[in-house]
């Protein structure tokens, strides 16, 4: 059973998402929050698999709530998915840096929304190749963060290659085809890289790959 926390300051939005989720046999909404502070408290109480968090909320916004959830060792199993009205707005990249596993636009089709919840519950990032490209090209403009490249030295050559392909939006199957290895081996390379780089999920691998200079905007 996938346990979901809904966090949005608009009751109508929450009830709409809940109506979609409640009819699914493998998904359960365990709590609803009207602001980020409440979302954080409820995440600690219920330990959901997924926290669907609106970016703009009173008291504590979604980015700060995401940052605090990601920083809490007790909430390591909680995957935060950011909800936004505007797609690639200025908050999305900051949310990914804070530890979000991905983001969804609120006008998403119901079947795509349900699929996304299940994808996030598996620990996969909600970043399609086209979205990854647009996101990185638009928001990776600041200087590299000091020390972000240090962890890459611990990776093997194949792990670095796998991380670079993750950063370009490839799935494990696509990485396997590109590297001429099995999907299981590709998954192993990615998981080992995540462990060595202390990344919560594939979304953070994308951020680390670009911040470290392993991949740069415009690479193909």
TrEMBL record:
It comes from Sphaerisporangium melleum. Residues 3-121 form the Response regulatory domain. Gene3D superfamilies: 3.40.50.2300. The modification 4-aspartylphosphate is found at residue 54. The keyword Lipid metabolism does not apply. One of its GO terms (molecular function) is DNA binding. InterPro entries: CheY-like_superfamily (IPR011006), NreC/VraR/RcsB-like_REC (IPR058245), Sig_transdc_resp-reg_C-effctor (IPR016032), Sig_transdc_resp-reg_receiver (IPR001789), Tscrpt_reg_LuxR_C (IPR000792), WalR-like (IPR039420). Pfam families: GerE, Response_reg. The lineage of its organism: Bacteria, Bacillati, Actinomycetota, Actinomycetes, Streptosporangiales. Residues 148-213 form the HTH luxR-type domain. GO terms for biological process: phosphorelay signal transduction system; regulation of DNA-templated transcription. Keywords: DNA-binding, Phosphoprotein, Transcription, Transcription regulation. It comes from the Bacteria. This is DNA-binding response regulator.
């Amino acid at each position: 059973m996938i346990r979901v926390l809904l966090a949005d300051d608009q009751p109508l939005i929450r009830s709409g998402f809940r109506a979609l989720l409640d009819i699914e046999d493998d998904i359960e909404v365990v709590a609803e929050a009207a602001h980020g502070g409440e979302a954080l408290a409820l995440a600690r109480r219920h330990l959901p698999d997924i926290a669907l968090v609106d970016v703009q909320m009173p008291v504590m916004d979604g980015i700060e709530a995401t940052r605090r959830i990601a920083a809490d060792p007790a909430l390591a199993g909680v995957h935060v998915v950011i909800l936004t009205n505007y797609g690639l707005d200025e908050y999305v990249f900051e949310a990914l840096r804070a530890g979000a596993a991905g983001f969804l636009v609120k006008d998403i089709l119901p079947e795509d929304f349900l699929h996304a919840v299940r994808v996030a519950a598996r620990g996969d990032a909600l970043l399609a190749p086209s979205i990854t490209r647009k996101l990185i090209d638009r928001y990776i403009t600041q200087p590299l963060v000091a020390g972000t490249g240090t962890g890459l030295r611990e990776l093997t050559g194949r792990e670095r290659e796998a991380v670079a392909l993750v950063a370009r939006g490839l799935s494990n199957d696509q990485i396997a085809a590109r590297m001429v290895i099995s999907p299981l081996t590709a998954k192993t390379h990615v998981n080992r890289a995540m462990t060595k780089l202390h990344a919560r999920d594939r979304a953070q691998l994308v951020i680390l790959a670009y911040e470290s200079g392993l991949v740069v905007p415009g690479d193909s």
